[in-house]
């Protein structure tokens, strides 16, 4: 029997988030023309097809342009920004699953092309160095917290960049701090400690894909 290709996990999560978008009031926009999941599949195929070998391993495009018709652009107008963010998340998750690397931040742009008919679209990509954010913290619900030049504090207090409602988490539990070309996870003397990939740490550099466990919450560190 022929082998049936499985759907990447990143695309499966993207499809589930699209279902929530429809439930949230965008159902009309999904009834005809381009289906967002079709764009998601095309982006992943584009990334696979354009991968190259770099110093750090397999490097893939991080800037994607999706040319769509005027009619489809109007359909997506009400939630275009949300859709491009979700598509970029699907790209990042697929890269993480496949062990790909980016050399800059990931962007997906929906661009109107008057020459295209409704339902027709074209994807192009390129590798673009630099651009912020350089790294992000990914929460279990898919929310992303960009990291910059300032420390990102994690704890129970509302002044934290990531505020967790968990009695096992200290008020100011840990920080992700920028350094010389890297980010570090630093425990702030918490009661129950901070785990990095299952090991208790007090101060440790972070690598792409690392899992930070604080209380009952697992936070993934991703480089752009």
What would you say about this model in short?
By secondary structure, this protein is an alpha+beta fold.
What do the pLDDT scores average to? 83
Main sheet record: 6 strands, antiparallel
Strand proportion: 25-35%
Q: Quick one: overall form?
A: elongated
Number of strands: 16
Describe the structure.
The chain is 26% helix and 30% strand. Helix 1 (9-26) runs antiparallel to helix 2, helix 1 (9-26) packs antiparallel against helix 4 (80-98) and helix 2 (36-49) packs parallel to helix 4. The model is unreliable at 1-5 (pLDDT under 50). Strand 10 (174-178) and strand 11 (183-187) form a beta hairpin. The protein is α+β, with helices and mostly antiparallel strands. The radius of gyration is 19 Å and the shape is elongated. It has helices at residues 9-26, 36-49, 70-76, 80-98, and strands at residues 52-54, 57-59, 63-68, 107-112, 121-126, 135-138, 144-147, 152-155, 162-163, 174-178, 183-187, 194-196, 199-201, 203-205, 211-214, 217-223. It starts with 8 loop residues before the first helix and ends with a strand. The strands form four sheets. A six-stranded antiparallel sheet has the order 7-6-16-15-12-13, with no helix packed on it. Strands 9-8-10-11-14 form a five-stranded mixed sheet, with no helix packed on it. A three-stranded mixed sheet has the order 4-3-5.
């Amino acid at each position: 029997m022929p082998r049936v290709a499985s759907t990447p996990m990143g695309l499966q999560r993207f499809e589930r988030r699209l279902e929530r978008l429809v439930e949230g009031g965008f159902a009309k926009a999904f009834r005809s023309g381009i289906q967002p999941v079709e764009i998601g599949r095309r982006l992943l195929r584009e990334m696979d097809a354009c991968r190259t070998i770099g110093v750090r391993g397999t490097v893939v495009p991080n800037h994607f342009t999706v040319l769509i018709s005027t009619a489809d652009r109007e359909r997506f107008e009400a939630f275009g920004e949300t859709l491009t963010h979700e598509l970029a998340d699907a790209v990042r998750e697929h890269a993480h699953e496949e062990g790909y690397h980016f050399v800059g931040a990931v962007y997906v742009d929906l661009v109107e092309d008057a020459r295209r008919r409704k339902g027709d679209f074209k994807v192009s990509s390129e590798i673009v160095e630099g651009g912020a954010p350089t790294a992000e913290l990914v929460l279990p619900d898919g929310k992303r917290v960009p990291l910059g030049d300032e420390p990102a504090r994690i704890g129970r207090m509302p002044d934290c960049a990531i505020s967790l409602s968990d009695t096992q988490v200290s008020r100011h539990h840990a920080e992700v701090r920028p350094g010389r070309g890297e980010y570090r996870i630093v425990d702030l003397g918490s009661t129950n400690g901070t785990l990095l990939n299952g090991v208790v740490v007090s101060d440790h550099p972070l690598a792409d894909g690392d899992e930070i466990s604080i209380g009952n919450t697992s936070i993934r560190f991703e480089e752009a």
